[in-house]
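The freezer alarm interrupted the setup, so I double-checked each line after restarting. Inputs confirmed:
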Amino acid sequence: MNAREEILGRVRAALRGAGEPGPVPRGYRTVGVANDPVDLFLERVADYRAEVTRCAPAEVPDRIAAALHDARRVVVPAGLAWPAPPGALPDTGLGAAELDRVDAVVTGATVGIATTGTVVLTHGPGEGRRALTLVPDLHVCVLRADQVVGTVPEAMARLAPDRPGTWISGPSATSDIELSRVEGVHGPRRLRVVVAG
Amino acid sequence: MTATFVGMPAFPEAARAALGDSQLRHNLAHATATIRARRREVVAEVDEWEELRLAGAAVKDAALLRLDEHLVRLEAELTARGVTVHWARDAAEACAIVAGVAEAHAITEVVKVKSMATQEIGLDEALAARGVTAWETDLAELIVQLGDDLPSHILVPAIHRNRAEIREIFVRAMGDAGRPAPAGLTDEPARLAEAARLHLREKFLRARMAVSGANFAVAESGTLVVVESEGNGRMCLTLPEILVSVVGIEKVVPTFTDLDVLLQLLPRSSTGERMNPYTSTWSGLTPGDGPREAHVVLLDNGRTRALADELGRQALRCIRCSACLNVCPVYERTGGHAYGSVYPGPIGAILNPLLRGVGTDEQVDSLPYASSLCGACFDACPVRIDIPGVLVELRAQVVDARRGTARHAAEAVTMRAAAATLASGRRLGLAQRGAGLLRRVTRRSVFSWLPWPGSRWTGARDLPAPAREPFRAWWRRTGGGRR
Ligand code: SF4
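Predicted 3D structure, all chains:
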């Protein structure tokens, strides 16, 4: 018997006489956040020692420029919803070694989660392929205020499994050395978030 | 290469050795106390925590009780998205599949993201035997690998090493494995992390193949999920052209939206964060983004044996958060190595015997006794695994399997006494009330000595004082926390 048939056979034998699974209690999905989710989002993103600002949509280009003040080589994905910063390279499928020589990347995101201070990228237009927001050391991420939801279940309801997803909560970090949190291991060591509107 | 646990002494001897190591005890006490405090804080923030726990347990039960259907669905969805699906009955079969993929592409080194399943099957050693070097990329795993050491905690495998020891390991061993540690490296955590970043980056940029596990595998959409902190996972999942993921069959969840409960329970229970820095989800191949070839190895290796145990199967709900380790008074004092397995602590004490069966291995058979049955693990567990209940059941199985053999005669005497108490609800209730009274009278929080037959227990352990209110009384009063 091949491994597949044998394992499935063992599973069926193990479950012989086992009952029906009960319903999943979903009460937790109705719990929301009391106040403006954007305020909470700003507070929680900052808790991870990421930099975060909120501005009117017209000010976004200035805020992006400010967030890039210490970066020289900047890359942007196709379809960025905001004007690309002057001099930025469009992503033309740079290899990993080339991306390693880029200082910063500017992208949008699909959804922001207030209770956890998370941005979720699904790597479509304006967000770029996964390597783009991984290899450069600075990630500037711009969201519209209406993309920020209160809770994880609200965010999941806006996501679909057909695209790859990356949930980002603060800069890369480790607590492996005596549990003291150190920002910045392999992913971008700096995360700057701009909320428009 | 990382050493293995084969031939470890049984728990009591290994624990005694660990208890004598004061550095280890100090590191562990500090680490577990820190994570416990963090976890308590972020769990207290969530009003609906108990509802989430009930939902988490129900989601995993829904998957396990229809596991055959969900596995077939998962296979179909993965295949439709360009992934090659393999099935592995045991560790040897799984290792051979991974090595075969490497060999088919003439690959001699792979980068790895921390995964319990690949540790369980001894993948690094198996690959080395076939001429393939596996580089661990999680900082703690790197420390363990470079130190030629064993992991001691699910979440923080190098929890037993302090910063000075880590610096020493980096300076000594990084050069042999690739880029050496920077000159003048200090033991400041930020500098040590930077050294790891530089050392591993050259490996990420060059690697053609990566090996991962998965925290969850969604049947309806073929989505795999990896939860991590450092970004080494993202590197492994994104940059190399070939990705092989070894996934235990119990990692399946039915639907994509089921992740909305598990992604809340896991980070808060595990690292004590509202959310871990990075979570990656992917459903097969995406043209122009990430690997060009992907394999998933669905691993049994004893999981169907555990599934067949009516009470024990709940252990397969485990999401490897390690909360039960951090609250366990036994683990806090002995550390992970004493359990002789990649799954230490309370969950290890039930999972290892369930996966491997009892009655054949002294080490495995000793694990269900590595507990004082205080119940802290159940209270902490985000998917409500009744670890104490399963421990008691497994002790009975060990005694049955070894009936008549001399080695377990001593345990048999003690356990018969315990069984007489535990088997009768009334007697247990009386014993617990007596114990609570003892605490109120003496005001002590730890008993290091009890009269016989209790002395058989306290001879090797301190016994935390019983709770003022026994668990069973609390359960009756609150309906299991629902009231
Ligand atoms: S048994 Fe529960 S508490 Fe322990 S690691 Fe598994 S999920 Fe976490």
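Quick read of the result. Residues B 269, 318-324, 347, 380-383, 385 surround iron/sulfur cluster (CB under 6 Å).
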